[in-house]
Amino acid sequence: MDQAASLKGDKRKTRVIAVASGKGGVGKTNVVANLACVLAAAGRRVMILDADLGLANLDVLLGFAPQYNLSHVLSGEKSLVDIVIDGPRGIKVIPASSGIQEVTRLDAREQRILLDQMEAFDGQFDYLFIDTAAGISEMVTSFLVAAHASVVVVTPEPTSMTDAYALIKVLHNRFGEQEFHLLLNSVRNMNEAEQVFDKLHLVCEKFLDISVDYLGYIPSDKAIPEAVRRQRAVVEMNPEAESSKQFLRVARELEQMPVKKQTGGLQFFWRRLLHGEFARE
Q1: Domains of the chain by residue range
Q2: Span between the terminal Cα atoms of the chain, in Å
Q3: How buried is 41 (Cβ within 10 angstroms: 0-12 exposed, 13-18 middle, 19+ buried)?
Q4: HEC sequence for 37-73
Q5: DSSP H or E run through 88
Q6: What confidence tens digit (pLDDT) does each residue in 200-252 have?
Q7: Is the predicted pLDDT of residue 4 greater than 90, yes or no?
Q8: Which CATH code, of 3.90.1150.10, 3.40.50.300, 3.40.50.720, 3.30.70.1560, is assigned to 13-152+222-272?
Q9: Cβ–Cβ contacts within 10 Å for residue 160, how many?
Q10: What's the confidence (pLDDT) of residue 260?
Q11: Which of 55, 157, 209, 241, CA to CA, is 20 to 30 A from 79?
């Protein structure tokens, strides 16, 4: 089925979606890249911010080599427009890996630079995906709380499930977050995905008194590692693969997914992030 014809709906203000995981190695960046490609193929205007410091591999995954990153913007050497990379299907990528580390602790001058630079993109995108680092660092939680929606990628591994719960617990207890969308990755089939989700859902309900949303699942199939080796998104290289079909289904869910009760686009997101308006005592 043609991906562009399979997603419907009007364009809207930029939705900022932060994608995280309790631990590394669960395929989070691959999820971001493929969902971005599906949405872009459907006519959505998509940007990705690579904010994974420790394991930044979006450039490797999509086959580009950025010469500049966000640190060059903050130093005044380059503008944000100068560092943006063109990805597949018109996706724009901000290679921020070495410049995002202390973004929540920028001084007033640096904050002003970043906010001013973001004005160039205000209203130009339907989605901004934040590919966060794994774990529960301050940088990760800041992105997740400031974003319009949070997606947590989980695999059936017990450590992935435990760490995903730890991330949700921190966001709920420290920041009062109530809405989490779980995406089950590298599962054998739908039954395994639902079993993993049910376990996490029950634990969150029992100990945190919150419910989590099932966003969908991505099966483990041979097409994914082959696409990674060729530095392409699997939805581009093999659209008929089962994983590609599921990425399309998840993208449909994203289009319908409710977001937190906050308004505004990119400028609003960055102001929340930089000024810490979400912080709890």
Answers
A1: 13-152+222-272
A2: 50
A3: buried
A4: HHHHHCCCCEEEEEECCCCCCHHHHHCCCCCCCHHHH
A5: none
A6: 999 999 999 998 999 999 999 999 999 999 999 999 999 999 999 999 999 99
A7: no
A8: 3.40.50.300
A9: 24
A10: 63
A11: 55
- Residue 9 pLDDT > 60: no
Closest C-alpha to 250, from 13, 23, 30, 101: 30
Name residue, tokens 């970043």.
Answer: 114
Residue 55 tokens read as 């394991």
Spell 14-34 as b/e; 16+ CB within 10 A means b.
bbbbbbbbbbbebbbbbbbbb
Residue 199: in which H helix or E strand, if any?
helix 190-207
Average pLDDT over residues 105-122: 80
Instruction: Read off the tokens for 27.
Output: 């395929």
Give the pair of three-digit tokens for residue 274: 């930089």
Which residue reads 């419910």 in tokens?
Answer: 211
Q: Which residues of 214-242 are buried (b: 16+ CB within 10 A; e: fewer)?
A: bbbbbbbbebbeebbeeebbbbbbbbebb
**How far is Cα 236 from Cα 128, in angstroms, rounded to an integer?**
20
Q: What type of residue sits at position 183?
A: L
- Measure the CA–CA gap between 187 and 184, rounded to whole angstroms: 7
Burial of residue 250, with CB atoms counted within 10 A of its CB: 0-12 exposed, 13-18 middle, 19 or more buried: buried
Cα–Cα distance measured from residue 170 to residue 204, given in angstroms and rounded to the nearest whole number: 12
- As beta bridge partners, residue 47 has 92, 128
Arithmetic mean of pLDDT, 109-117 = 82
Residue 174: count other Cβ atoms within 10 Å of its Cβ.
Answer: 14
Question: Rg for the chain (alpha carbons), in Å?
Answer: 18
Of 144-148, 246-250, 274-278, the range with the highest mean pLDDT is: 246-250
